[in-house]
Design a protein that fits this description.
The protein has a single domain, classed as Lumazine/riboflavin synthase (Rossmann fold). Helices cover 45% and strands 21% of the residues. It contains five helices and six strands; from the N terminus they run E-H-E-H-E-H-E-H-E-E-H. Strand 1, helix 1 and strand 2 form a beta-alpha-beta unit. The two termini are 28 Å apart. The N terminus is likely disordered.
């Protein structure tokens, strides 16, 4: 999360493990595609930067953020993965619909992660407007997709040490 103390994308390089030995799933929402594509590019390039082979990255697109948890579950049921990264963008509208979707997605991602004892990373923007989303998808607050990839790398390494 971006804050005055630590902006989005600030990481200690030395604490980020190599992805050479890990396999990752990336689930991307097609809703707000101009934003989610930026998140995906940031995520994918960050995994590659930390030496994750391209053949160790499985990408799946889903219609919207609501479908992210089920797609993460389907990936974990069908493949050996060390972490799944869920990328989406939920922008506040005229109603409270965004709150219901955001809550369901957050709870769903958490539940899948716990059920499968595998990190499922919440890389979903929940913003008040499109400009806030742009700012967090490669704009002035960095790229949440990069942050999600780094979280997946770190959590996969922790999981491999403990299991």
């Amino acid at each position: 999360m971006a804050s005055g103390k630590q902006p989005l994308g600030t990481h200690q390089e030395a604490s980020i493990p190599s992805g050479e030995q890990f396999r990752f799933g990336i689930v991307v929402s097609e809703w707000n595609a101009d934003i989610t594509e930026r998140l995906y590019q940031g995520c994918y390039h960050t995994l590659a930067k930390y030496k994750t082979p391209s053949e160790h990255i499985v990408t799946l697109q889903v219609p919207g953020s609501f479908e992210l948890p089920q797609a993460a579950q389907l990936l974990l049921e069908s493949q050996e993965l060390d972490a799944v990264i869920c990328l989406g963008c939920i922008i506040k509208g005229e109603t409270d619909h965004d709150q219901y979707i955001s809550s369901a997605v957050a709870h769903g991602i958490t539940q899948v992660s716990l059920d499968y004892s595998t990190p499922v990373v919440f890389g979903v923007l929940t913003t008040n407007n499109e400009q806030q989303a742009i700012d967090r998808a490669g704009g002035k607050h960095g790229n949440k997709g990069e942050e999600a990839a780094i979280t997946a790398l770190r959590m996969a390494a922790i999981r491999s040490r403990l299991i």
